[in-house]
Design a protein that fits this description.
globular, 5 helices
């Protein structure tokens, strides 16, 4: 027979697992263009922010630029950072196709 402490731990673990699964599913469900459709997330602590920053930095300058553009255009901070941090699983693929480097700026001169 399980003690009440063991049952409480098991119940807590099950609830945490359910919350984790629900959160992961919710982050993947909305379309990438509908950034405000994400459910509200807890405040972003410094440790989590550092973790996300390190993961996004590994992707290269272009993904970092894309993150900054989305934030500049009014996207919610936490969902954008979480979504881009998930891309670190594909760092090799991103680099293989040159997606980690910003294209050079083009200067277009107008003829008078």
């Amino acid at each position: 027979m399980m003690s009440s402490a063991a049952v409480a731990v098991a119940a807590t673990t099950a609830r945490e697992a359910k919350v984790t699964i629900s959160s992961s599913t919710a982050l993947l469900a909305p379309a990438a263009t509908d950034l405000n459709a994400y459910p509200p997330l807890p405040p972003l602590g410094d440790a989590r922010l550092r973790h996300l920053a390190a993961r996004i930095h590994r992707l290269g300058e272009r993904p970092l630029y894309q993150v900054l553009r989305e934030l500049r255009d009014g996207a919610n901070l936490v969902p954008v950072l979480e979504r881009y941090a998930e891309l670190t699983n594909y760092t090799g693929l991103i680099r293989a196709f040159g997606g980690d480097v910003l294209p050079p700026l083009r200067i277009v001169e107008r003829s008078s």
